[in-house]
Amino acid sequence: MTLAKQIMGSSLIDKSSFVSVPSKLLFNHSFHQKNHFLVKPVLVPFQYRKVYAKRAVRGPVAAISEDLIKANSSSSTTTTVPEKAAKFKVRAVVTVRNKHKEDLKETIAKHWDAFADKVGRNVVLELISTEVDPETKAPKRSKEAVLKDWSKKTNVKADRVHYTAEFLVDSNFGVPGAITVSNKHQKEFFLEMVTLEGFACGPVHFPCNSWVQSKKDHPAKRIFFSNKPYLPSETPAGLKALREKELKDIRGDGKGERKLSDRIYDFDVYNDLGNPDRGVEFTRPKLGGKDIPYPRRCRTGRRPTNTDKNAESRVEKPLPMYVPRDEQFEESKQKTFSAGRLKAVLHTLIPSLKATISSENKDFNMFSDIDILYKEGLLLKVGLQDEIWRSLPLPKVVTKIQESSEGLLRYDTPKIISKDKFAWLRDDEFARQAISGVNPVSIERLKVFPPKSNLDPDIYGPQESALQEKHIIGHLNGMSVQEALEENKLFVLDYHDAYLPFLDRINALDGRKSYATRTIFFLTPLGTLKPIAIELSLPPVEQSFRSKRVVTPPVDATTNWIWQLAKAHVCSNDAGVHQLVNHWLRTHAAMEPFILAAHRQMSAMHPIYKLLDPHMRYTLEINALARQSLISADGVIESCFTPGRYCMEISAAAYKNWRFDMEGLPADLIRRGVAVPDPTQPHGLKLIIEDYPYAQDGLLIWSAIENWVRSYVNRYYPNSSLICNDKELQAWYAESVNVGHADLKHAEWWPTLNNVDTLVSILTTIIWLASAQHAALNFGQYPYGGYVPNRPPLVRRLIPEENDTEYASFVADPQKYFLSAMPSLLQATKFMAVIDTLSTHSPDEEYLGERQQPSIWSGDAEIVESFYGFSAEMRQIEKEIDRRNKDPSLRNRCGAGVLPYELLAPSSEPGVTCRGVPNSVSI
């Protein structure tokens, strides 16, 4: 200890927060004050390190080895400061994640790298101190160290391989704050973690989780920082320049086409959804800009198309789309997604063959035809004999799969018909799904009757609805309409304004027919909803009596089938708004700007970046895959949903009314009128529909996220001035708004980031959208939509009236007419295959309350401890959700044939489970 005091100065030993002390003592000082310890490293006596080992702050401590301490502990108390700094060894343990499967090219490269490693083309590491050398004014650096045993461990089959390296470090080196890695091999490798051993503080951790490219492709050294979080103003002198350089490199220069190995994050508009070079029918308008406002997406820099210089050329599957290298799916995730895509190819292939061989059977003729998809599989439905199958020019791999595993050609039974095959036909189930199905975020309290449109009456006709009191008065349990409104008993699914501007164009498409619908629900004394009227609107035509039509609950066989067709059109409207607006726009597209800006403006050392990191995982990759295959011209969404080529224009029209400040759960519930502010309630609001499963469970998760975020923010920002003066934080938010959401940047509703409460609100909203909101809207797609009549994404016929030529065929065989209005066999099976993939959890999924390296993702022990508290709260919420699902008084989630509401239950097994809340928008 005497030696340490002479080298370091006794006052610093007494004051430094590097000394491992109990966490309760740490909180006697403000966190802002504590972060000023980053000046000199301090020696920690062994007896104290042992006592407080478990509670110690896991930040890096002194660059003095135990050998040096022991060697000097027995020396004279009059030891003087040595003229030359002593040197000691530090050991690095480097964890590299292996690939499970390699192609021939990768295997050859791996073995070549093993050979090259022996002759000096190694992986080279270098430590960088938090301190600056007083003579050179540059950060202190260790001598370079080479990763050992790379060639010997080439054939190790484990998921993770551990390598070592040894550094020789001066005793006055200080605290290691960064490490550089230079890969002189041919092949990239995935660096998961570096841990330094030999410092008196104990291990120093560098969570990397990144691909390190070959020096021949990317000459610059990779920089990784320790797990110790630093606000920009508190960055140690030795790390300031590195912090700025790393951010500059990640931003790029906005020029050129991106390579798949790049780590460049930049913005662009959606100008790559169409492919005008294929023909005029594949042109699509640019989304983003004053003409059609939209959020920005990740820039790829591809060349323009030949026929339209404003459209970016496309990369068609199976070629990969660019996203920054670390955003690409990891192997297990890619395997899951690829398996789903394979099933989609097979499911699309078989109906295509059927349509070719037996053209008269393009439609489902009976409901039993749909059942066969689950019971017997498509091959039996298609009726192909073995010899016909074998004679078809199919890839060998497809033939092999068909022979060995017909399961790939058979659909799992969707949950909606697993407990009650006819549940989808019932009105109570139709209504229940509005609050506990896959799209529980559209229903609103009806405040005025009849409802009115906000569209321009000069273009779209009278704003008044065709609904009248006579349509609903008999379904209000004895109330007048005014009484029902005043007592908050009337609710509406209103898709009138979303669809009407597009109906002329949609209905002109081949095999597409749609209305703009409004559905009125009554809240019964049992707490369930009952549909009592459906309004079907078409664009106004002079002297036409068909522009608006009201359908009410049936009184006979004919009106029963008309009512079923009307509900199918409502479900089709609902499916479109769910997919294009609530799911894609509000969770996928609207999140991307915040993610791009976070990487560009906040260092990996920034505590807010560390908080958001797990909630940004895979989102850029899944959004790029969507642009390639799902939302593109003639993609799955256009093929399978009623609006066809106008799908993304409907999404963009909704963006004009999108408001970030209304995306948090409490604000959204109040905006829709399904809750009112009430400070006496646990979450500060009262639900109008008390048994509203999505809202009930969602509020538990929202509150847990908010509490976790608040404790985190308070730890680093004890006062609001620190938020205002945090240049990286302010740059992130400003770029998210002004560049990422540039078309709405002048909106007055954007929160001003100038205090703790606003920062907590912004971060809670982002984490909510990425995790629970996305889960509620995504993982029920196959369980509810896999039985197409329950939620037809596409409808092909309008409802006939008595003077229509189709009316006679409708009356003669209403079941056949109903099925002919549903998607065809080809459309249905293609849609089912895709939503099956989208509803699937991969084996490497991280759920809310989990994260990679949970004990060392942050070097702040208090924050790690707080995170474990958040994890425990997630487990308690799951138990409460399980309890609610068994409560017979909650009729919207419990009862005969009623599905439990598990979409917000935090954990899940891999596969299609209809539950589980991943951290991020990852599928």
Structure explained in plain terms:
Helix 20 packs across helix 25 (647-655), helix 21 (592-601) runs antiparallel to helix 29 and helix 27 (693-716) packs antiparallel against helix 35 (861-884). The chain has 923 residues and is of the alpha+beta class. The strands form five sheets. Strands 2, 3, 4, 6 and 9 form a five-stranded antiparallel β-sheet that branches. It has a five-stranded antiparallel β-sheet with strand order 12-13-14-15-16. It is built from 35 helices and 18 strands. The protein is globular and about 100 Å long. Among the domains are: 87-251, Lipoxygenase-1, CATH 2.60.60; 426-579, Nuclear Transport Factor 2, Chain: A (Roll), CATH 3.10.450. 39% of the residues lie in helices and 11% in strands.
What attributes characterize this protein structure?
5-stranded antiparallel sheet; 923 residues; disordered N terminus; 18 strands; alpha+beta; Lipoxygenase-1; 39% helix; Nuclear Transport Factor 2, Chain: A
